[in-house]
Each structure stands twice: as structure tokens, then as C-alpha cells.
Amino acid sequence: MVHSLPDLTYEYNALEPYIDEQTMRIHHTKHHKTYIDKLNTALETHKNLIGKPVEELIKNLNKMPEDIKKAVRNHGGGHLNHSFWWPLLKKDIEFKGEVSKAIEKEFGSYDKFKELFSNAALGIFGSGWAWLVLNNKKLEILTTPNQDNPLTEEKISILGIDMWEHSWYIKHNANKSAYVQDFFHVINWDQVNKNFLKHK
Ligand code: MN
After folding, report:
1. Residues 58 and 28 placed together within one structural domain of the fold
2. Ligand 1 centre and the CA of 179: distance in Å?
3. Is 73 found in the same domain as 126?
């Protein structure tokens, strides 16, 4: 299996005005596509790994052959993170479902969760992601640098935000915090709930 770019199930302008069409188009067709191309190139020299799903590569990152470990970490991680991210985005979905109850129980309220998640995201220096994960069935907020995914540390992501400049700079310029505010308008809570129910 050669890795390939998943289609979006919505139009590039579907998240306007919170995430703009141009950003979505470049992010999907250029950034995500490049991670996939570079991952495929790296795997060419390791035929036994070509058929493996990207989740498996990232879960077993520490067992990857040394000569491609860095490429799998960066480009495999980039592929996994973005494939996970696109379905998480949908406009005007109400905070609901079993996951909403679990978040309120763990963090006190939606507003408190929003504050903690935003602070984590804005606290990242340089490029990375903030995540809501299940760590041994417990909800936690954490961040990873670059394209690292919590799965390598055996944590299951159920929500994430891409904090690379390429995901916000065209629309929000230097106003990273406005991007994080806008992100809360495009969280597909149905998808987050699905992710939660699969692993809770
Ligand atoms: Mn990105």
C-alpha cells in the first residue's frame, strides 16, 4: 500500500469565515500531500513497511530502522495528524454527546476546558499540535512538537489543533490567539465523540 491523500468530505470554503478557503486548499493539497510523498519515498528502501497503516508506523516509531526513523516521525506523523484532523473540522456543531459529559466531568466545564486547551495550544513554542487524548482511559490535554503524535507514547488522540503557522498565517497573520478562538467554531463534536466512544 502506497500512502495517498485522503479526500476532504467538504469544500475548501466550508469553514469560512473561521478557516479560509485558501489556507484549506494549500494545507490539504500542498502540505499534507508533501508529507505523504516524502513518507512514500522514505519507505521505498524498506519494502516490508510499505503495506503498514501509518498508525502502526507511528505507534512503533521507536522500532523503526534508524535510517528512516526521522522521516517516518516527521512525514508519517504529518500524514497521520492531518488525516485525523480534516474530519474533526465542521462548522457550528453543538458541544454534545458522551464526550461532552466526560469533558465537563474531567475539566469542570466547557469554558474551563476551552481555556486549558487554548492555553496549551498558545503555549507551544514553534510548530506543533495541542491534543485532547485518552491516557489509560483518562482525558488529558497535552502538546507535541513538530508532527509528533501522542500514539508513540501510547496515548489516543480524540481532538487536536494544528499549531503550525501554515494552518493560520494567511488569515490570522500574527494573531495566533484569534485562530485558536476561531477553531472552537469548527470543532466537529460528532467526530470527537466518535473518537471518544471508540477508545473510552
Ligand atoms: Mn498542518
Report:
1. yes
2. 13
3. no
Q: Which residues form the domain of 78? A: 21-88
Using the mean position of ligand 1's atoms as its centre, give its distance from the Cα of residue 166 in Å: 6
CA–CA dist 170, 4 (Å, integer): 26
How many domains are there within the chain? 2
- Based on the domain organization, do 193 and 107 belong to the same domain? yes
pTM above 0.90, yes or no: yes
Q: How far apart are the CA of 139 and the centre of ligand 1, in A? A: 24
CA distances to 95, 98, 180 from 187, in Å: 9, 15, 11
Q: How many angstroms does the Cα of residue 142 sit away from the middle of ligand 1?
A: 17
Check if the beta carbon of residue 182 is closer than 8 Å to that of residue 161: no
Ligand 1 midpoint to CA 167 (Å): 6
Q: pLDDT in tens for each of the 200 residues of the chain?
A: 599 999 999 999 999 999 999 999 999 999 999 999 999 999 999 999 998 999 999 999 999 999 999 999 999 999 999 999 999 999 999 999 999 999 999 999 999 999 999 999 999 999 999 999 999 999 999 999 999 999 999 999 999 999 999 999 999 999 999 999 999 999 999 999 999 999 99
Q: How far is the CA of 105 from the centre of ligand 1 (A)?
A: 30
